[in-house]
Amino acid sequence: MEAGKKSSTVPHRATTDRTCWSLRFGEGNGPCDRAEKRRLAGSGGGSSVVDDIEENSRWHTTLIIRGGTIVDGSGLPRYEADLGITGDRIATIGKINETAKEVIDADGRVVAPGFIDGHTHMDAQIFWDPLGTCSSWHGVTSVVMGNCGFSLAPCAEKDKLLVMKNLERAEDISPRAMEAGIKWSWDNFAQYLDAVERLPKGINYAAYVGHSALRTYVMGERAFSADTTSEDLAAMKRELRTAIRAGAAGFSTSRNRNHETPDNRPVASRLANWDEVRQLVGVMGELHAGVFELAQEDVDRDPAVLADFHCRLKALALETGVPVTFGGGASRKSPQPNMWRSFFDLADETVAAGGKMLVQTSSRWISALLSFESVMPFDKAPVWRDVRKLPLAEQEAALRNPAIRRQLTDAAREHMRSPHRVIGAEARPPEFDWFFPLDKPLPPWRSLAQLAEESDKDPLDLIIDLGLDKHLKQFFIQPIVNEDQDLVLAMMRHPRSVVTFSDSGAHVSQIMDSSIQTHLLGHWVRERQALTLEQAIRKTTFDLAAFWRLQGRGLVREGYFADLTIFDPATIAPEMPTLEYDLPAGARRLKQKSIGILATVVNGEVLFRENEHAGALPGRLLRGPLAAAR
Ligand SMILES: [Zn+2]
User: Fold this and answer.
1) Which residues lie below 8 Å from residue 224, measured CB to CB, with a gap of 6+?
2) 148 CA distance to ligand 1 centroid (A)?
3) Rounded mean pLDDT of 105-127?
4) What pTM, to 2 d.p., does this model score?
């Protein structure tokens, strides 16, 4: 992947968010005084330089976006205006007669804040993919990474394999790619933030301290098998405190059975008892900074366990004051079909009692994306095991051989009858009513059961025929959760939800949900008209910026950072996915671009035009609020 050239600088440009966002964000609004401005300006004294910079920046429009329809992120009605951008900020909104070095004609297009994704796992990818794909191809300009307890820090280089073990199976990130692609230069979390800050970046990143890494940092191998001692816990709290002060976005954990290591053990955070979690979240409470994100406990089988979990979570939010967030979803297989609603009720109750809580939803089902090129549900069955090891062309030849094909369908049938244990996004034996050939990027899709009936074919034969028709490049969707789209809509409409949860950067050969924002705009807003543009944009911008306290982002307002997505509401949609082998060490990943996005602007510079990289890498590390005071 191209390293890209460093972005151009303007004289007043702050290198990170912790520096002077109040420089043109309203006087007296932040920690910056005049002396600080002078320091940033590098003048070393005398007020004239500062005045010159302010004078210049006010008049020196660097980018104009002309004639667009502004949907500003607040939920307020759209309006037409030009945008004038000076350096990294929106300087003017209204009629602009002057011209600038760069002008984008946005006639007929929507100009919205860049989308913010609160649930990604780009921690490893950021080292080899400066553009932040595939999220950035869908209009995302800021992400939070390190979710579900998985981060690469704190961790000394000598222990990196322990931390990678947490990520490898639970998040399907290739250990070969991580080994080849990550230049380890840290031990504690503050050093990791410095490393991220130095990397060339197309988009903005905030980063949680992951509980699995933190536990492993302090306890080594014991993290995978033992309770903490009081010394362990004190050391973990110390490191977390330092990390939050250095600008970590918060602390994340997983208590979920889907998160296992390659040797079938729980990831380190799952060994923690609730008191350990409480004490760690309490550190953020004492500091009045940081968000707590968790992959939930396994509460779906027993209402009493669910109620106990809710009770603890609400108490934690109230006693610490820390904003709490987690993923919400509805599963048709849940023993408690209304469980999803109880999490929204919990958020309502917690907020009513004075706490902060936000539920993360997707804009569709979360599904495995399968193909003969990557993973199929029968790969571990006899005959399949051997055939699937072959190069793709030889697999194709085998599938065209009637005798081998019969063996394969027999083995698949047998495989579907035997019990299985799958975790996370691993492929499960298909139920043909819930298995969909992906023939276009947006729904509705017809199920394999339906297609088999219409064509009077055996469903297993049909899977093979469809694969062969496309030289094995046919994708199939297998929903894992959120099957009922009416419930997805109800969740998105709930005032305590945001549309996020792409898991971008993880499950790289299993799922492809980096396109949930363009799915939201193409499917729910345009085709179904179930949400207005104003609602959908707010759910992907301002509501997230507010919860994660991303100062100066998430709205189109004068003085705000110019993070913008400019798109055609009549065409915006995901494109068809592909499978590529472009990760370090040639590891594979699913890839998906979008159509209908005219330009993506990050910190005032054009990152993409029509999803082609324009050359700049204007992204930044977004440090939490305490870093500004350092
Ligand atoms: Zn996650």
Assistant:
1) 216, 261, 265, 266, 267, 268, 271
2) 5
3) 97
4) 0.90
